[in-house]
Design goal:
about 75% helix; 8 helices; about 220 residues; mainly alpha
């Protein structure tokens, strides 16, 4: 499974480098390439050709190598291998997302008129929905999933939190996807609330489960 995913990663990174190589010769030597966008959808930071065209492919390659070795690096690596569906889905979605992002930003650098938030927001929504669907299948480990002191304390808390977190991620993804078709003044607050909610709700839930386990039960 890991070897297949690594081959897929190398193919995706190869496409990214080919696209960057093509763009490299289209842009002048002193070209300023947009590398960061604000909430308005406008670029607010520019970098050199090297930064704009090569950073994301190298980052993707580094993340892929990390994914490949995670089962050997994690003290509970066997649980990662037992989480094969979720492990593969998260790795694959990361590749697809970064490939799409790199393609979009490269085309923008070349002068194509693309509204990046109209690409990024629905992509984030789909990413959250897919991750949410697989979250409940992640076994307890130290590197992937909702890792809080309380989920790592108890396998039962881990499993319950990830089932709950999966539903929260799907809801946040659906809201983000729908909001991407609305005006920016509505879409951005929805995106922020969705991200904050998806990040905080499972953490709070895991703590409440832990407190529930620690509360002495009254004798019947």
């Amino acid at each position: 499974m890991r070897k297949q995913m690594m081959l897929f990663s190398l193919a995706a990174v190869g496409v990214m480098f080919l696209l960057s190589g093509w763009a490299w010769f289209q842009l002048p030597a002193n070209a300023a390439v947009p590398v960061h966008w604000g909430f308005s959808g406008q670029a607010d930071r520019y970098g050199s050709k090297a930064e704009g065209l090569l950073l994301t492919p190298f980052l993707t390659l580094g993340i892929s190598v990390l994914f490949y070795f995670l089962p050997q690096l994690d003290p509970r690596g066997k649980n990662l291998l037992r989480s094969e569906q979720a492990y593969r889905a998260m790795w694959g979605m990361m590749l697809v997302f970064l490939l799409g992002l790199h393609t979009t930003t490269t085309l923008i650098a070349l002068g194509f008129q693309i509204n990046i938030e109209k690409v990024l927001m629905p992509s984030l929504g789909i990413l959250f929905i897919v991750l949410g669907n697989f979250m409940g299948k992640i076994r307890q480990n130290y590197t992937m999933g909702i890792r809080t002191p309380w989920t790592l304390y108890s396998e039962e808390i881990w499993n319950k939190t990830h089932r709950f977190g999966g539903r929260v991620f799907v809801a946040a993804g659906a809201l983000t996807f729908i909001a991407s078709f609305l005006s920016l003044s509505v879409a951005i607050p929805v995106l922020i609330l969705s991200l904050v909610g998806a990040g905080l709700a499972p953490v709070i839930y895991s703590y409440l489960l832990y407190r529930g386990e620690q509360t002495p039960k009254k004798p019947g």
